[in-house]
Amino acid sequence: MSSTTNNSDRDHIIRQWRDLEQSDPAIFEAILGEEDRQRRGIELIPSENYTYPEVLACNGSVFTNKYAEGYPGRRYYGGQEFTDAIERLAVKRAKKLFRCEHANVQPLSGSPMNQAVYMGVLNPGDTILAMDLSHGGHLTHGAPVSHMGKIFNFVRYKTDPVTHRINEEELRALAHEHKPQMVLCGHSSYPLDLDYSMFTRVAKEVGAVTMADVSHIGGLIAGGVLSNPFDHGFDIVTTTTHKSLKGPRGGMILCRKPFRLQINKAVFPGLQGGPHMNAIAGIAVTLGKALKPEFKQYAQDTINNASTLAAELSQRGAHLVTGGTENHLMVVNTVDSYGIDGHVAEETLDKVSITVNKQIIPDDPLPPMRPSGIRLGTPAPTSRGFGQAEMVQLAAWMDDALKGHENETTLARIRDEVEELCLRYPVPGL
Ligand code: DSN
């Protein structure tokens, strides 16, 4: 890859922001407002993170201008010298990082990523065994409100109410009863690690393809602190790139060689047109960083922070679904813990500049907009440099705020303390 750009002239980057300020002040002000919000508050939504400054640069780069339908070396538009180079790099790094035989880095995000797998590997009407949404699964794993839930026949397994794990015999019984074409695992609100070999054992018995959606924990697998489904014989693994991986918004489908053509055709031309090459540049940068030794430390710190936060909250009387955490997230039953639903808890924590999301709990008797819990995660505060001491302090603030949710003086005091701490830990990229 060669470039004839005059690298000493970077004034255009400063000009871009000045132009935005002048031509569309409403949007400019909103960007500054969001920067300020991120700077002042603690981000605990487990699917969010602070990406690298280099990724922000890629996102705002001229790759935004370029169409690149097809794959490197085989595109439907000219001018692909640089797009081919970055996509090849992203694919090479993804394969190395996740120890897989093939990678497609074009999915625009998590939902099209999973749709492409189902459409590429299965036929409409086929059966997929997947985790129940309220037990930790994801909308794209066949929730009845999703299009995929209408096209395919999803059969749901749940977690055991005592062990909080997925019971192998129950999974086996469902598999033998429904004869699925695919056994799918993965989650967006489940705090424990999975026994991937259990899924491959059961899938093999009924001749099903295995797929793991590791979107939440992709960075933790890449960092070597959680199990990699490919080490347990999985066929297909999907992950978004903007959660624990810390990259731009995007998705990747990783698979064994025999699925390569089906997957590629399903993404393009099956489901998508031109890939977002600015995001793919950022994905390549992200994967390059995840291959470095310091990323392993980030992954370990993320898990350690979650474990400390969970222990501290529990010690103060919070009821954690599954009793604790083995990954980056936890779900707190706020009805049992504080006598308030997840919506009130989310709004209370917003008032003290701690951002969380309301969360349904297994077989939740309450509706999704006012569910029984909240979901917390540590990828973002860990990126910011928070460690064990900050987790202990954070648990104390959350506990005080949720117990004193009607006391505006307490909330104002906590907000000031939270913001004072945050200003000592700059947000990466800001
Ligand atoms: N929206 C993401 C999450 O919060 O888990 C998953 O799609």
Key words describing this protein structure:
seven-stranded mixed β-sheet, alpha/beta, 430 residues, 17 helices, Aspartate Aminotransferase, domain 2
Widest sheet: strand ordering: 4-10-9-8-7-5-6
Quaternary structure of the protein: single chain
- What is the averaged pLDDT score? 96
The number of distinct β-strands equals 15
- What integer value in Å does the Rg equal? 22 Å
Structural account:
Helices cover 46% and strands 13% of the residues. Strand 11 and strand 12 (329-333) form a beta hairpin. The two termini are 30 Å apart. It is built from 17 helices and 15 strands. The chain folds into two domains: 62-290, Type I PLP-dependent aspartate aminotransferase-like (Major domain) (Aspartate Aminotransferase, domain 2); 301-422, Aspartate Aminotransferase, domain 1, CATH 3.90.1150. Helix 1 (11-23) packs across helix 2 (25-40), helix 4 packs parallel to helix 11 and helix 12 (293-315) runs parallel beside helix 16. The chain has 430 residues and is α/β, with parallel strands linked by helices. The protein has a seven-stranded mixed beta sheet with strand order 4-10-9-8-7-5-6, with helices on both faces. It has a four-stranded antiparallel beta sheet with strand order 11-12-15-14. A two-stranded parallel ribbon has the order 1-13. D-serine binds at residues 47, 110, 138, 188.
